Amino acid sequence: MEWNQYKAWELIGFLAKKEVSSREITESVLKRIEERKQINAYISVLKESALQAAAQTDEQYRTGQIDKKHLIAGIPIAVKDNICYKNNRTTCGSRILEQFIPPYNAFVINRILEHRGIIIGKTNMDEFAMGSSTETSFFGPTLNPADTGCIPGGSSGGSAAAVADSQAILGLGSDTGGSIRQPASLCGCVGMKPTYGLVSRFGLVAFASSLDQIGGFTRDVKDMSLLLNVIAGHDKKDSTSVDRPVPDYFSGIGQLNIKGIKIGIPREYFIEGMDKEIKERIEKVIKLLEKEGAIIEETSLPHTEYAVADYYIIAPAEASSNLARYDGVKYGYRSKSEESANNLIQMYFNTRKDGFGPEVKRRILLGTYSLSSGYYDAYYLKALKVRTLIKQDFEKAFKKFDVLLTPTSPTPAFRIGEKIKDPLQMYLSDIFTISTNMAGIPGISLPAGNNSKGLPVGVQLMAGPFEEKKLLQISYALEQIIKDKV
Amino acid sequence: MEYESVIGLEVHVQLNTKSKIFCNCSTQFGRTPNTNVCPVCMGLPGVLPVLNKEVLNKAVMAGLALNCTIADFSKFDRKQYFYPDLPKNYQVSQYDLPICIKGYVDIKTNSQSKRIGITRVHMEEDAGKLIHSEKPGSDFSLVDYNRTGVPLIEIVSEPDLSLPEEAVVYLNLLRNRLRYVAVSECNMEEGSLRCDANISIRPKGQKELGTKTEVKNMNSFKAVEKALKYEIKRQISAVEKKERIVQETRLWDSEKEVTISMRSKEEAHDYRYFPEPDLVPMVIDRQVIEGIKKNMPELPDLKAERYVKEFGLTHDDAEIITFEKEMALFYEECVKIHRNYKSVANWLRSEVMQYLNRNNKAITDMKDLKPANLAKLIKLVDDGIITGKIGKELVIEIIEKDIDPAVLIEKKGLKQVSDEGAIEKIVDEVIKENPDAVEKFKSGKTGILGFLVGQVMKKSQGKANPAIVNKLFEQKMK
Question: Is B96 in CB contact (< 8 Å) with chain A?
């Protein structure tokens, strides 16, 4: 087995016992990236700085400067390219930021560096995280490692593919409507979106500020708890980051007995026309849980049917505002045509026309429209009210259930090009993941085996706000059951 | 037909916090362009705003100074428009839940008091500054982002003002009250106070308002008055010519002294306000408000009341001395040294304020005017060491230079002479030289005494104690 195939918690054990060096692990990962270039998981591979950091970490291991508080020392991690890493370009998969180099680190980058993680590269993504297939990237689509004719999901398709394909040990992504969980499901790895406010958004290039949340990709639940220990916690620089004590998610991960755990199955997540094999797999998982003594009960989240429509009012509205700053005046791409040089308004038009792709433009227009005077009350304000109803559905459900269980995605990975011309079909890819963002609650996608074509299927668990510890423990228990039986 | 004008003002005031509203950058004025900036105020990708608590405190103070109700719950919104001086192409401002609402101030014109309603006071960030090259044929403009993110409050008045003169009185009052609570320097020339006006006219007695225009780009109180006068005249003459007033924004051209149409209502921005998702709503704690109230500097009306009660000043004196904060503080320093409250008030109102008016100066401009020096001078007069006449001659030197009056009169030999023998000599001389006047006095025309005393003062270079001079004349001319 190659070093790049191990989990982080295994490698940390080997590193501590000096059975492997960070340099060897990093080289192994870099070799894999090189071999699997066609997957296009990365926009930037940071070979030099990663090898340098690995060598430095090895030296620190050797001289005893690494201790238990360095949770991921020497472990290569892939970072989605909308998370700012100082002095390295951060493109958001867009032409408009193709050459943008931030002079600051995102909060999560600082945390990774404090824990001596090795940032191996910046991963591909749908442009400004708008998409469910990573096809809207200016840098070309990422391919699904399980079937290179398929998309990896999105928008964090690069990180999902990298972690699933041994091109990184850990990965970071962002999830606004399912952008971590859906690609994790389609690529066959673990992906988690924490509670809104648990992980600082400072340095995450905003798509929809009230929905965006940074989370991780890992190969198992144990690694996810380790990664969450690294990135969770209050940040003064993010006013929406919540100041509350963060538990140790890693310790005691396996101590929960699934017996007696109450799991709700919202009927709205088993819709007509959903993929039959996915339905069957999820039903099988439910049966296994029941057999292990979990209390399974059907329940209802009655406002689920409005979630996608609601999301496509709120997210584009915020996006239209967040993306207004890309105008060619201060940084990023600027149209240099003669027309642009002579007239400010033309410069704005041409810069944004050339700099943004069609999906981003579509959402900017949607959002600009719904915030316009005369439409605000009918669209945005109404959407906020619906959002409250969706949130209340969950509040009610979590009074009764420890977690809710659903499929992550209504379909397995689809063919490249299959939905890119049909935005509505593409938007429905997130039908099962959007509600958690609307409610601000945590959600995790776990691999539940492959379908008959060998494409991964994911199962999603959701919990109440800041219930990540419980969610991870239940996920771990479920992971063990699936591993043995599915 | 007779018309009346209706005016409402929107006043932007820079709060004098050390750092900007959403980042740690300095707010210092006049620095090298683009040096007071950071990723946050430059709106770089991925950065987030964090509210400077001092801004909230000062906005609350301003609201309290304008008799406003402070909101229990307030939030920020984004006001969106594209302009190169606005790095994010939206301004973080407040839309439907401003921090302060429903206040008022009482203005006085021609000794009549009038209450002007304050609709709202809200917080927002300032934009940068575009610098257009003045060279002909130049094809670029530069942007200075130093001002970006400097905290502002916008104070919106009700349309309760009727005359341009009232608008100026209102502005002055606003300025004084905000300076009193030390939330802003309110310097219109430096741009820390800016004013836009909404103006309409209507036939006298009509209830409903006419179509308003908004006038911008007025850079001094005088410009406000001139621009309002011009705009009212323009609207009246338009209506008289049966033209329709269009709702529009107009710019004041201070050189040509006219207002020029900038954009009509149809071209007006749709700002697409929506709640700022990067900042959490503010729940305002009543106890915090009480704390701010307690620690707030005394406002002018309360101060005036106290001067009447504690110092026995007339209402008129108290009001005039407390009108400007610096004058009031100067007065308080003076009376610490010389406790003749009324006398100090008189000297300030007559000598000092007249000097300032004459020279178009503010008390803060007189860096060498020290309360101790002035108080000592007044005390010298009140104690009879020098005459009032000499005191008034010396006061200008005291205003302009940092000089101890005791040293000054010593040097000039101006000490009052109260030695009866010495004065008697001069009185005798004057009686001898002016027999006609003496006769007149004796025949009952006692008014001539002033002339005789004046002669003595002249001969003594003003140093003779006037009380003794009077006494001696009366004794000698009986």
Answer: no
Residues A439 and A398: their CA atoms lie apart, in Å, by: 12
My answer on whether B395 and B447 are in the same domain is no
Length of chain B: 478
Cβ-proximal residues to A65 (8 Å cutoff; 6+ apart), any chain: none
For chain B, say whether A348 makes contact (Cβ under 8 Å).
Answer: yes
- Judgement on whether residues B118 and B229 belong to the same structural domain of the protein: yes
From residue A463, how far is each of A193, A404, A448, B93, B395 by CA, in Å?
11, 7, 19, 35, 80
Query: B207: which 2 tokens?
Result: 């209830």
Nearest to A70 by CA among A85, A60, A82, A59: A60
Residue B322 CB contacts under 8 Å (≥ 6 apart), including other chains: B300, B301, B303, B304, B307, B328
- What part of B 246-305 touches A (C-beta under 8 Å)? 270, 272-274, 277-280
Residue B344 lies in a domain: yes
- The minimum CA-CA distance between A362 and chain B, rounded to whole Å, is 18
What does the alpha-carbon distance between residue A184 and residue A146 come to, in Å, rounded to a whole number? 12
Same domain, B424 and B398: no
Are B334 and B192 contained in the same domain?
no
The amino acid at residue A302 is P
Q: Let me know whether B283 and B307 are in one domain.
A: no
Domain for residue B32, yes or no?
yes
A133 included as an active-site residue: no
Domain hosting B398: range is 298-412
What is the DSSP code string of A306-371? GHHHHHHHHHHHHHHHHGGG-SSSSSS----SHHHHH-HHHHHHHHHHHHS-HHHHHHHHHHHHHH
CA distance A369 to B433: 98
> Residue B199, SS3?
strand
Indicate the range of A24-38, B127-141, B196-210 predicted with least confidence: B127-141
- Which residues contact residue A7 at a Cβ distance below 8 angstroms, ignoring those fewer than 6 apart? A169, A218, A219, A220, A222, A223
The more confidently predicted of residues B434 and A247 is A247
- Strands of B265-397, DSSP E: 274-275, 282-283
- Which entry of A179, A340, A370, A445 is annotated as an active-site residue? A179
**Region A217-241: what's the mean pLDDT?**
97
* Cβ atoms of A456 and A412 closer than 8 Å: yes
Give B427: exposed, middle or buried? Use CB within 10 Å, 0-12, 13-18, 19+.
Answer: buried
Q: Report how far residue B360's alpha carbon sits from residue B358's, in angstroms, rounded to the nearest whole number.
A: 6
Q: Is B292 inside any structural domain?
A: no
SS3 A401: coil
- Same-domain status, B107 and B250: yes
Q: How many Å apart are CA A178 and CA A437, to the nearest integer?
A: 8
Where among B287, B320, B346 does a domain terminate? B287
Instruction: Return the DSSP state at B348.
Output: I
- B12 and B59 part of one domain: yes
From A133, A155, A166, A241, active-site residue: A155
The domain ranges of chain A are 1-486
Q: Does the active-site annotation cover A80?
A: yes
The angle formed by the CA atoms of residues B458, B460 and B462, to the nearest 5 degrees, is: 65
Q: How many CB atoms lie within 10 A of CB B291?
A: 12
State which of B395, B412, B429 marks the end of a domain.
B412
pLDDT of residue B267 exceeding 70, the answer is no
Using CA atoms, how far apart are residues A213 and A443, in angstroms rounded to an integer? 11
Same domain, B233 and B368: no
Query: B143-200: per-residue pLDDT in tens?
Result: 999 999 999 999 999 999 999 999 999 999 999 999 999 999 998 888 899 999 999 9
Q: How much is the pLDDT for B414?
A: 65
Distance from CA of A39 to the nearest CA of B (A): 27
Number of folded domains in chain B? 3
Whether B293 is in a domain gets the answer no
Whether the CB of A240 is below 8 Å from some CB of chain B: the reply is yes
CATH number for the domain running over A1-486: 3.90.1300.10
